[in-house]
Amino acid sequence: MFDPKVLSEYALSHMDVSTESIQTSLNLFQTFKRLYEQNPALLNEILNLATVDKQMPVHPGNFSYVLGLVTDKQALLITNVSEDRSQIFLQPHLNNQIWTFGRDPNQSSLPIRDRRLSRCHAAIRYDSTCGFVLYDLDSTNGTYVNGVRIRQNYILKDGDLIRLGSMNFGFFTGAEFRRVGEPSPDVLRLISEAAVPPTAPMEDESLETPTHVQEPLPPNLEQTLHFMNGPEFPQD
């Protein structure tokens, strides 16, 4: 638990703003402090929701994900958390199908550049009896699933939201293969007609509703979140 006096000194030394603005920020800090004391899991979820957009990959429309796929011979992970593109990670040891996450490429099979990650932070293991299981490897800042910190391991479900360090990603899994029917002649005709690239945009595209642009956080709240995500704020 941190000392309110230290918190106040930190705010005063890092803000070149008016006295009124400083007081507002300190009030916010105190509010978050009380929330942390009473319900740290809820506070972590609030911080997660407030910063999720900043954790997304650089490319517009992209998002971080891990897909656990089970074939008739083995399990594999498809993910873009380690690079800015999707990659397939195979584990040739069928008896120990384990993928590790961390910031140290020498200790982790999926290295991630994040200073809040431990060198070998967490692992996903495929178990033929229960599916994909997430393990926390005694990490410093913890492993979270749907906003709740796990203590040892957690059996992952399709659609779970995982947080490791400062990074958020969705987990999806698939083990059921379904055969689809042959497309109808009308579908084949439409695809054939659309094979030629369009030379101009559709006429009604300009009338579409503009994409919603997320408004920035209020300055004081953004400063508060920045402080609480820093190393000075306790994460446990």
TrEMBL record:
Matching InterPro entries: Cell_Proc_Reg/RNA_Proc, FHA_dom, SMAD_FHA_dom_sf
Pfam families, A to Z: FHA (PF00498)
Cited SUPFAM superfamilies: SMAD/FHA domain
CDD domains per record: FHA
Stretches for region Disordered: 199-218
Source superkingdom: Bacteria
Regions that span the bilayer: none
Domain FHA: 99-150
PANTHER family, per database record: NUCLEAR INHIBITOR OF PROTEIN PHOSPHATASE-1
Protein name: FHA domain-containing protein
